[in-house]
Write a structure and sequence with these properties.
globular
């Protein structure tokens, strides 16, 4: 159904679903253990994703796919737990703004994982982006007002590092496996990984929260399916700018639901981070064209 729509429009739908998903996570994390929220996201996400996979004709999931997605599943589980906890202690727009640094971390992740050379422009973009983080932190509440604020910032940055790895792996798997399989495995494997620690450390959810867990799963399935659809049909550099519209959706949702008014410094920092990310994407695309022409 979405195959006829432009990839940019499909990704926009994914970003809106992702912002709504983050708001649901924040709401649930206020009264539930973060492990339970993460497990619920992947459990119910797997249920809805299974329906999408079934409707797509039950495409074959072979042994190689299980191996590849198992590695990605551990990365996603770590990313989710750190980011979900950060959402419980930070305003929604602030957490989303800080998470934007993940593309700037990708060259350094590639250096460690793939032994790729880091270009000077990547270092410059990273410095500008983290300058944006510093700007965004100005005017933050004091330790007495928000004792876990600094830990929340650190958790978002750690989550962003994990997410940069996950996005590199997503691009490869989306092209090979297709959106229905990627969507299912992205929820199923992290859910399996989180079963044991959730049973060990978390308590059952309140009866009134079950509807929100269902909502979380539905939004997660839509988010992952649309993301995989978009990335399977377009280059990451072409889609990168659309990710930053999440700040607008997060600001609106945070204001309406949680009565949060982001500090002006958040938007100033976001402008620096986004500018650095967009230039990094432009530079990557420029170099790719030069390589292709030679």
């Amino acid at each position: 159904m979405f195959g006829r729509l432009p990839p940019a429009l499909v990704l926009t739908g994914a970003i809106v679903a992702g912002a709504a998903m983050d708001a649901t996570i924040k709401y649930l994390s206020l009264t539930n253990h973060v492990l339970l929220v993460a497990f619920g996201r992947y459990l119910f996400g797997a249920i809805f994703s299974f329906g999408i996979w079934w409707r797509a004709g039950r495409p074959l999931i072979d042994r190689e796919m299980w191996r590849a997605h198992s590695l990605r599943g551990f990365v996603i589980a770590a990313c989710a737990v750190t980011f979900f906890w950060a959402l419980s202690v930070l305003p929604l727009a602030e957490a989303v703004t800080l998470s934007f640094v993940y593309p700037l971390l990708a060259p350094f992740v590639a250096r460690v994982v793939l032994k790729e050379t880091i270009r000077p422009s990547s270092v410059l973009c990273a410095l500008v982006g983290f300058g944006g983080v510093i700007v965004a932190m100005q005017g933050a509440p004091s330790e007495a007002e928000a004792p876990q604020h600094d830990l929340g910032v650190a958790a978002v940055l750690v989550s962003a590092a994990f997410f940069s790895v996950a996005m590199v792996l997503l691009r490869e798997r989306a092209q090979k496996d297709g959106a229905p399989i990627v969507g299912l495995m992205t929820s199923l494997i992290p859910g399996i990984i989180l079963i044991a620690p959730t049973i060990a450390f978390a308590t059952p959810p309140r009866l009134g929260d079950w509807l929100f867990f269902l909502q979380l799963g539905a939004l997660a399935a839509v988010f992952m399916y649309l993301m995989a659809q978009a990335y399977a049909r377009a280059e990451a550099q072409q889609l990168a700018p659309i990710h930053y519209t999440e700040l607008l959706w997060a600001s609106m949702i945070g204001f309406v639901i949680f009565h949060e008014t982001p500090r002006p410094e958040i938007y100033a920092g976001a402008a620096l981070i986004i500018a650095a990310c967009l230039y990094a994407a432009y530079d990557e695309r420029r170099l790719s064209r030069l390589t292709e022409s030679t």
